[in-house]
């Protein structure tokens, strides 16, 4: 089965991304939450690992939503807004569900954004490592 339709990540690909991310999280002993969304930011696959913090549920979903909605990794947002006072002040309070630290990546195919992955549970650098492992499953 293909990993992607013309415009969206398939359920099969979403499940492979999720499984690979869980495997990486287990390897580094990080209980986390992993969310895979389609191009509209709607959940396609989701897991809250045993021991993962409750607040990580929303953060992971928001990271995936941010990545899919803007087509850029969440860790790119800080550099994008930090030197622009109106954006630095207004983006995080004015854009609903925006996350400006690592752990969210867009899923792309043929240059188009077809979904996103978000991971929350550790330091954002650990979340990024787990999310990248998920993406590698369909690269």
What structural category do the secondary elements indicate? alpha+beta
The amount of beta strand, in percent, is: 15-25%
Biggest sheet architecture = 4 strands, antiparallel
Head-to-tail CA distance between termini: 14 Å
Number of helices: 5
Would you spell out the secondary-structure blueprint of this structure?
Layout: H1 11-27, E1 33-38, E2 43-48, H2 55-70, H3 76-81, H4 85-94, E3 104-109, E4 112-120, H5 124-136
Antiparallel strand pairs: 1-2, 1-4, 3-4
Helix pairs in contact: 1-5
Characterization of the model:
This protein is of the alpha+beta class and 139 residues long. The chain has helices spanning 11-27, 55-70, 76-81, 85-94, 124-136; strands spanning 33-38, 43-48, 104-109, 112-120. α1 (11-27) crosses α5. The protein is globular. The model has no long low-confidence stretch (mean pLDDT 93).
Short note summarizing the structure:
With 139 residues, the protein is of the alpha+beta class. It has five helices and four strands.
Core attributes:
139 residues, 5 helices, single chain, four-stranded antiparallel β-sheet, globular, 4 strands, alpha+beta
